[in-house]
Amino acid sequence: SIPLGFFGGIGASSRAGVLVKGSNYLEALTKVKKIVYDKTGTLTQGKFSVTQIVPAHNHTEDEVLLLAALAEQTSPHPIARSIVQHFSGDIKEYQVDNDKELVGLGVQVDYKDKTISVGNIKLLTELKIVPPKLDIAATMAYVVYGNEYIGALAIADTLKPDSKEALLQASELGVTEQVMLTGDSAIVGQQIADELGITVKSELLPQDKVTEVEKLKDTLAPGEKLAFVGDGLNDTPVLAQADIGIAMGALGSDAAIEAADIVLMSDEPSAIPHVIKIAMRTKKIVW
Ligand code: ADP
Ligand code: MG
Protein backbone atom coordinates (compact mmCIF):
# COMPACT_ATOMS: atom_id res chain seq x y z
CA SER A 1 0.00 0.00 0.00
CA ILE A 2 1.03 3.60 -0.57
CA PRO A 3 1.70 5.97 2.34
CA LEU A 4 -0.94 8.69 2.14
CA GLY A 5 1.76 11.35 2.63
CA PHE A 6 2.98 10.73 -0.87
CA PHE A 7 -0.08 12.47 -2.13
CA GLY A 8 0.13 15.55 0.03
CA GLY A 9 0.31 18.74 -2.03
CA ILE A 10 -0.75 17.07 -5.22
CA GLY A 11 -4.35 18.08 -4.84
CA ALA A 12 -5.18 18.98 -8.42
CA SER A 13 -4.07 15.61 -9.70
CA SER A 14 -5.76 13.61 -6.96
CA ARG A 15 -9.03 15.44 -7.65
CA ALA A 16 -8.64 14.36 -11.26
CA GLY A 17 -8.31 10.72 -10.17
CA VAL A 18 -4.54 10.64 -10.46
CA LEU A 19 -2.26 9.40 -7.70
CA VAL A 20 1.28 10.74 -8.07
CA LYS A 21 3.96 9.25 -5.81
CA GLY A 22 5.98 12.42 -5.47
CA SER A 23 6.22 15.79 -7.17
CA ASN A 24 9.38 14.69 -9.00
CA TYR A 25 7.17 12.56 -11.23
CA LEU A 26 4.93 15.52 -12.04
CA GLU A 27 8.04 17.48 -12.94
CA ALA A 28 9.30 14.60 -15.09
CA LEU A 29 5.96 14.59 -16.93
CA THR A 30 6.60 18.15 -18.12
CA LYS A 31 9.67 16.77 -19.94
CA VAL A 32 8.08 13.64 -21.39
CA LYS A 33 9.13 13.16 -25.04
CA LYS A 34 8.36 9.47 -25.57
CA ILE A 35 5.38 7.46 -24.42
CA VAL A 36 5.30 3.69 -24.65
CA TYR A 37 1.92 2.01 -24.31
CA ASP A 38 0.97 -1.57 -23.60
CA LYS A 39 -1.76 -2.67 -26.00
CA THR A 40 -4.17 -4.92 -24.19
CA GLY A 41 -6.33 -3.16 -21.63
CA THR A 42 -4.51 0.14 -22.20
CA LEU A 43 -5.19 1.23 -25.80
CA THR A 44 -7.68 -1.58 -26.35
CA GLN A 45 -10.59 -2.40 -24.11
CA GLY A 46 -9.07 -5.67 -22.94
CA LYS A 47 -12.59 -7.04 -23.04
CA PHE A 48 -12.26 -10.00 -25.31
CA SER A 49 -14.93 -12.21 -26.70
CA VAL A 50 -14.63 -15.53 -28.50
CA THR A 51 -15.62 -14.98 -32.13
CA GLN A 52 -14.63 -18.28 -33.74
CA ILE A 53 -13.54 -21.79 -32.78
CA VAL A 54 -11.41 -23.72 -35.24
CA PRO A 55 -11.02 -27.42 -34.29
CA ALA A 56 -8.23 -29.58 -35.72
CA HIS A 57 -9.14 -32.63 -37.80
CA ASN A 58 -10.86 -35.29 -35.69
CA HIS A 59 -11.81 -32.75 -33.03
CA THR A 60 -14.89 -30.68 -32.34
CA GLU A 61 -15.57 -27.09 -31.32
CA ASP A 62 -16.96 -28.40 -28.02
CA GLU A 63 -13.71 -30.22 -27.23
CA VAL A 64 -11.61 -27.15 -28.02
CA LEU A 65 -13.80 -24.95 -25.81
CA LEU A 66 -13.98 -27.43 -22.93
CA LEU A 67 -10.21 -27.97 -22.75
CA ALA A 68 -9.55 -24.23 -23.09
CA ALA A 69 -12.06 -23.33 -20.37
CA LEU A 70 -10.60 -25.97 -18.00
CA ALA A 71 -7.11 -24.54 -18.46
CA GLU A 72 -8.19 -20.90 -18.19
CA GLN A 73 -10.55 -21.15 -15.21
CA THR A 74 -8.13 -19.69 -12.64
CA SER A 75 -6.30 -17.19 -14.87
CA PRO A 76 -7.07 -13.48 -14.37
CA HIS A 77 -5.99 -12.66 -17.96
CA PRO A 78 -8.78 -11.03 -20.01
CA ILE A 79 -8.35 -13.72 -22.70
CA ALA A 80 -8.94 -16.36 -20.04
CA ARG A 81 -12.04 -14.63 -18.71
CA SER A 82 -13.57 -14.44 -22.20
CA ILE A 83 -13.00 -18.15 -22.81
CA VAL A 84 -14.48 -19.21 -19.48
CA GLN A 85 -17.44 -16.92 -20.09
CA HIS A 86 -18.06 -18.49 -23.49
CA PHE A 87 -18.22 -21.99 -21.97
CA SER A 88 -21.76 -22.81 -20.92
CA GLY A 89 -21.12 -26.12 -19.10
CA ASP A 90 -20.42 -26.64 -15.41
CA ILE A 91 -16.68 -26.35 -15.08
CA LYS A 92 -16.72 -27.72 -11.52
CA GLU A 93 -17.68 -31.17 -12.80
CA TYR A 94 -14.14 -31.62 -14.09
CA GLN A 95 -11.16 -32.43 -11.90
CA VAL A 96 -8.07 -30.41 -12.82
CA ASP A 97 -4.73 -29.93 -11.04
CA ASN A 98 -1.53 -28.03 -11.01
CA ASP A 99 -2.63 -24.87 -12.85
CA LYS A 100 0.22 -22.68 -14.09
CA GLU A 101 0.27 -19.18 -15.54
CA LEU A 102 3.01 -18.86 -18.18
CA VAL A 103 3.45 -15.10 -18.31
CA GLY A 104 3.24 -13.71 -21.86
CA LEU A 105 2.52 -17.19 -23.26
CA GLY A 106 -0.63 -18.70 -21.80
CA VAL A 107 -1.61 -21.29 -19.19
CA GLN A 108 -1.29 -24.99 -18.42
CA VAL A 109 -3.30 -27.37 -16.25
CA ASP A 110 -3.31 -31.14 -15.74
CA TYR A 111 -6.52 -32.93 -16.73
CA LYS A 112 -6.87 -36.72 -16.55
CA ASP A 113 -3.41 -38.03 -17.40
CA LYS A 114 -2.26 -35.19 -19.64
CA THR A 115 -1.50 -31.47 -19.61
CA ILE A 116 -3.73 -28.94 -21.35
CA SER A 117 -1.78 -25.96 -22.73
CA VAL A 118 -3.58 -22.85 -23.97
CA GLY A 119 -1.79 -19.82 -25.33
CA ASN A 120 -0.15 -18.02 -28.21
CA ILE A 121 2.14 -19.08 -31.04
CA LYS A 122 5.21 -18.68 -28.80
CA LEU A 123 3.81 -21.26 -26.43
CA LEU A 124 3.26 -23.66 -29.34
CA THR A 125 6.83 -23.10 -30.49
CA GLU A 126 8.02 -24.03 -26.99
CA LEU A 127 5.91 -27.17 -27.17
CA LYS A 128 7.38 -27.88 -30.64
CA ILE A 129 3.94 -27.85 -32.23
CA VAL A 130 3.28 -26.21 -35.59
CA PRO A 131 -0.39 -25.22 -35.91
CA PRO A 132 -2.13 -25.09 -39.27
CA LYS A 133 -2.01 -21.67 -40.90
CA LEU A 134 -5.15 -19.79 -39.90
CA ASP A 135 -5.60 -16.49 -41.68
CA ILE A 136 -7.61 -14.87 -38.93
CA ALA A 137 -6.81 -11.29 -37.87
CA ALA A 138 -7.69 -11.88 -34.23
CA THR A 139 -5.85 -12.84 -31.09
CA MET A 140 -5.53 -16.63 -31.20
CA ALA A 141 -5.56 -18.96 -28.20
CA TYR A 142 -4.24 -22.34 -29.33
CA VAL A 143 -5.23 -25.48 -27.46
CA VAL A 144 -2.90 -28.46 -27.01
CA TYR A 145 -3.67 -31.62 -25.01
CA GLY A 146 -0.61 -33.72 -24.20
CA ASN A 147 1.34 -33.43 -27.44
CA GLU A 148 -1.69 -33.11 -29.65
CA TYR A 149 -2.93 -29.93 -31.30
CA ILE A 150 -6.71 -29.74 -30.66
CA GLY A 151 -7.65 -26.41 -32.22
CA ALA A 152 -7.79 -22.66 -31.69
CA LEU A 153 -10.13 -19.93 -30.47
CA ALA A 154 -10.20 -16.55 -32.18
CA ILE A 155 -10.65 -13.77 -29.67
CA ALA A 156 -11.49 -10.20 -30.56
CA ASP A 157 -10.68 -7.04 -28.69
CA THR A 158 -11.49 -3.47 -29.74
CA LEU A 159 -9.90 -0.06 -29.39
CA LYS A 160 -10.98 2.18 -26.56
CA PRO A 161 -13.03 5.04 -28.02
CA ASP A 162 -10.61 7.79 -26.97
CA SER A 163 -7.26 6.09 -27.71
CA LYS A 164 -6.67 7.88 -30.98
CA GLU A 165 -7.60 11.29 -29.57
CA ALA A 166 -5.33 10.72 -26.54
CA LEU A 167 -2.33 10.01 -28.81
CA LEU A 168 -3.05 13.17 -30.83
CA GLN A 169 -3.32 15.31 -27.71
CA ALA A 170 -0.07 13.90 -26.34
CA SER A 171 1.77 14.83 -29.52
CA GLU A 172 0.26 18.32 -29.39
CA LEU A 173 1.72 18.59 -25.88
CA GLY A 174 5.21 17.95 -27.25
CA VAL A 175 5.55 14.17 -27.14
CA THR A 176 7.59 13.29 -30.23
CA GLU A 177 7.46 9.48 -30.26
CA GLN A 178 4.68 7.10 -29.22
CA VAL A 179 5.09 3.34 -29.45
CA MET A 180 2.79 0.42 -28.66
CA LEU A 181 4.21 -2.83 -27.26
CA THR A 182 2.33 -6.10 -27.18
CA GLY A 183 2.70 -9.78 -26.46
CA ASP A 184 0.03 -10.36 -29.05
CA SER A 185 0.67 -11.56 -32.61
CA ALA A 186 2.23 -9.32 -35.28
CA ILE A 187 -0.96 -9.46 -37.35
CA VAL A 188 -3.15 -8.17 -34.52
CA GLY A 189 -0.54 -5.68 -33.28
CA GLN A 190 -0.16 -4.16 -36.76
CA GLN A 191 -3.91 -3.93 -37.30
CA ILE A 192 -4.44 -1.98 -34.06
CA ALA A 193 -1.34 0.16 -34.75
CA ASP A 194 -2.65 1.07 -38.21
CA GLU A 195 -5.98 2.13 -36.75
CA LEU A 196 -4.14 4.38 -34.29
CA GLY A 197 -1.32 5.58 -36.54
CA ILE A 198 1.33 4.49 -34.04
CA THR A 199 4.42 2.25 -34.31
CA VAL A 200 4.24 -1.22 -32.79
CA LYS A 201 6.49 -4.04 -31.58
CA SER A 202 4.63 -7.34 -31.31
CA GLU A 203 5.15 -10.84 -29.90
CA LEU A 204 7.07 -9.51 -26.91
CA LEU A 205 7.47 -11.25 -23.59
CA PRO A 206 7.38 -9.01 -20.49
CA GLN A 207 11.21 -8.93 -20.39
CA ASP A 208 11.32 -7.94 -24.10
CA LYS A 209 9.13 -4.95 -23.24
CA VAL A 210 11.75 -3.91 -20.66
CA THR A 211 14.47 -4.17 -23.35
CA GLU A 212 12.42 -2.04 -25.78
CA VAL A 213 11.93 0.64 -23.13
CA GLU A 214 15.67 0.62 -22.36
CA LYS A 215 16.48 1.06 -26.07
CA LEU A 216 14.05 3.96 -26.41
CA LYS A 217 15.42 5.62 -23.26
CA ASP A 218 18.89 5.52 -24.84
CA THR A 219 17.65 7.72 -27.68
CA LEU A 220 16.46 10.53 -25.36
CA ALA A 221 18.39 13.78 -25.14
CA PRO A 222 19.62 14.76 -21.64
CA GLY A 223 16.71 15.86 -19.45
CA GLU A 224 14.07 14.27 -21.67
CA LYS A 225 11.83 11.60 -20.16
CA LEU A 226 10.08 8.42 -21.22
CA ALA A 227 6.76 7.26 -19.80
CA PHE A 228 5.33 3.76 -19.97
CA VAL A 229 1.58 3.27 -19.66
CA GLY A 230 0.11 -0.14 -18.88
CA ASP A 231 -2.88 -1.75 -17.24
CA GLY A 232 -0.60 -3.45 -14.74
CA LEU A 233 -1.26 -7.06 -15.62
CA ASN A 234 2.22 -8.59 -16.18
CA ASP A 235 3.66 -5.10 -16.65
CA THR A 236 5.42 -4.62 -13.31
CA PRO A 237 9.03 -4.88 -14.63
CA VAL A 238 8.46 -2.43 -17.46
CA LEU A 239 6.57 0.02 -15.22
CA ALA A 240 9.68 0.05 -13.03
CA GLN A 241 12.10 0.52 -15.96
CA ALA A 242 10.45 3.66 -17.41
CA ASP A 243 11.35 7.13 -16.09
CA ILE A 244 7.65 7.50 -15.35
CA GLY A 245 5.63 4.29 -14.94
CA ILE A 246 1.91 4.94 -15.29
CA ALA A 247 -0.65 2.29 -14.30
CA MET A 248 -4.14 2.80 -15.72
CA GLY A 249 -7.44 1.70 -14.25
CA ALA A 250 -5.22 -0.14 -11.84
CA LEU A 251 -7.21 0.03 -8.64
CA GLY A 252 -7.33 -3.59 -7.63
CA SER A 253 -3.89 -4.57 -8.91
CA ASP A 254 -1.58 -4.14 -5.89
CA ALA A 255 1.59 -5.09 -7.76
CA ALA A 256 0.94 -2.45 -10.41
CA ILE A 257 0.13 0.23 -7.85
CA GLU A 258 3.42 -0.52 -6.10
CA ALA A 259 5.51 -0.57 -9.26
CA ALA A 260 3.95 2.54 -10.82
CA ASP A 261 5.02 6.13 -10.20
CA ILE A 262 1.62 7.45 -11.23
CA VAL A 263 -1.68 5.61 -10.89
CA LEU A 264 -4.70 6.71 -12.93
CA MET A 265 -8.10 5.68 -11.57
CA SER A 266 -9.54 6.07 -15.02
CA ASP A 267 -8.92 3.49 -17.67
CA GLU A 268 -9.40 6.06 -20.43
CA PRO A 269 -6.21 6.92 -22.34
CA SER A 270 -7.23 10.61 -22.44
CA ALA A 271 -6.29 10.67 -18.74
CA ILE A 272 -2.66 10.71 -19.95
CA PRO A 273 -2.63 14.03 -21.85
CA HIS A 274 -4.82 15.31 -19.02
CA VAL A 275 -2.20 14.54 -16.38
CA ILE A 276 0.55 16.01 -18.60
CA LYS A 277 -1.48 19.23 -18.75
CA ILE A 278 -1.91 19.22 -14.97
CA ALA A 279 1.86 18.79 -14.61
CA MET A 280 2.53 21.70 -16.96
CA ARG A 281 0.04 23.95 -15.14
CA THR A 282 1.48 22.94 -11.75
CA LYS A 283 4.93 23.84 -13.00
CA LYS A 284 3.79 27.30 -14.07
CA ILE A 285 2.21 27.97 -10.68
CA VAL A 286 4.68 26.37 -8.30
CA TRP A 287 8.17 26.19 -9.73
P1 ADP B 1 -0.33 -7.69 -23.96
O1 ADP B 1 1.06 -7.30 -24.32
O2 ADP B 1 -1.19 -7.81 -25.17
O3 ADP B 1 -0.92 -6.87 -22.85
P2 ADP B 1 0.23 -9.97 -22.15
O4 ADP B 1 1.67 -9.74 -21.83
O5 ADP B 1 -0.77 -9.88 -21.08
O6 ADP B 1 -0.27 -9.15 -23.45
O7 ADP B 1 0.12 -11.39 -22.84
C1 ADP B 1 0.83 -11.59 -24.04
C2 ADP B 1 0.20 -12.65 -24.86
O8 ADP B 1 0.29 -13.91 -24.18
C3 ADP B 1 -1.27 -12.44 -25.12
O9 ADP B 1 -1.50 -11.62 -26.25
C4 ADP B 1 -1.72 -13.87 -25.38
O10 ADP B 1 -1.45 -14.22 -26.71
C5 ADP B 1 -0.84 -14.69 -24.45
N1 ADP B 1 -1.49 -15.01 -23.18
C6 ADP B 1 -1.19 -14.50 -21.96
N2 ADP B 1 -1.98 -15.04 -21.01
C7 ADP B 1 -2.84 -15.87 -21.65
C8 ADP B 1 -3.92 -16.73 -21.23
N3 ADP B 1 -4.29 -16.82 -19.96
N4 ADP B 1 -4.56 -17.45 -22.18
C9 ADP B 1 -4.20 -17.37 -23.48
N5 ADP B 1 -3.21 -16.60 -23.93
C10 ADP B 1 -2.53 -15.86 -23.04
MG1 MG C 1 -0.93 -6.44 -20.78
TrEMBL record:
Subcellular location: Cell membrane; Membrane
Family label: Belongs to the cation transport ATPase (P-type) (TC 3.A.3) family. Type IB subfamily.
The name this protein goes by in its record: Cd(2+)-exporting ATPase
Species of origin: Ligilactobacillus ubinensis
